[in-house]
Specification:
It is built from 9 helices and 6 strands. It has about 230 residues and is of the alpha/beta class. The chain is globular, with a radius of gyration of 18 Å. Bound molecules: 3-methylbut-3-enyl trihydrogen diphosphate (IPE) (2 copies) and magnesium ion.
Length: about 230
Amino acid sequence: MTPSHIAFIMDGNGRWAERRHMPRNYGHKMGTKALERVVDLAIKYEIKTVTFYAFSTENWSRPQKEIDTLFDIFRNFLSEIDKYKSKNVKLHFIGNLGRFPQDIADSCAEMTAQTCGNTGLNVVVAMNYGSWEEITSAVNRIVAAGKQTVAEEDVKNALYTAGLSYPDVVVRTGGEVRLSNFLLLQSAYAELIFINTLWPDFDEKEFVGVLNEYASRVRKYGGLKKADAKA
Ligand code: IPE
Ligand code: IPE
Ligand code: MG
């Protein structure tokens, strides 16, 4: 089975650059190239949705100089709207964009609006995203709507991911084996794949490796494997 939705924790940019005695920022730039490569691969392999973790709510603790470079990388990505339009990509952003400089938040809104009619690959970019912030803001939204009790659907609809599918598989590059506050609820039944390759090196071979690894997994959702259920 091919996954319908793959989410990527794009980790290892800094180490990739440091190994080349280059500034960490160079790693982030090359990380953007890997993102573009993965968008093309997702189209080629007919994946419906890819999510990229671009900036976490904890990444504000990085040096301001690195944050400023990341802002410039986001600006550059957001200026390339025609590229995504021509690929029939539909862009979505999840996270609290309000903490970014206004021009970045505006460009995200503009890019969402300009691609919302597209029918191809869904590309979801998580920016200033953290599951705890997401849950907290969802609860606040529900409270503001005056609800006394909530159903599961109310919670789902108040999350940033309302209307989007949930990942079938979460892939983390860079060797760390943790989720770092990423889509904790939405990944409740996702398959997890951790690979040592640093994000800027993620290529077609790695992508196909992810598809093969996913195909080998048995998803049971708390039930039984199909063969066992018959016994
Ligand atoms: C991930 O790469 C990109 C962001 C968190 C923005 P890192 O910058 O965390 O790279 P490493 O983990 O230090 O190598
Ligand atoms: C996770 O990477 C966040 C993104 C990829 C945007 P980090 O490098 O920030 O995660 P930790 O600090 O190693 O957990
Ligand atoms: Mg990291």
